[in-house]
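The records we work with from here on pair a chain with its fold. Here is one such record, which you should read through line by line:
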Amino acid sequence: QVQLVESGGGLVQAGGSLRLSCAASGRTFSSYEMGWFRQAPGKEREFVAAISWSGGSTYYADSVKGRFTISRDNAKNTVYLQMNSLKPEDTAVYYCAASSSAVAGYDYWGQGTQVTVSS
């Protein structure tokens, strides 16, 4: 079992930056692939970024590539999402998720944190 708690959301002007954090409980955090997803009002949840258990591989949605950076600190059981050059279309609830295996997919989710980007 893994429990995930996101923080760091808020209101920022277009062009600004935010860093989201996701603190995980559980001794096996370092074995999970971690991801960030987001859901805007009236839209489906979409993939934003993911990072392998070691941090050696990262993946990004085209819409955030070059602006967002995912990282993790396994010693702190925390995954981060650094968001730069924010745009109003980045406004959404951002969710942290953990994947215990490729078969299981993302099977643990946080409660989400709101990011609002004003124009």
Q: What stands out?
A: The CA atoms of residues 34 and 82 lie 14 Å apart. The first strand starts at residue 4 and ends at 7. The chain has no helices and eleven strands. The mean pLDDT is 95.
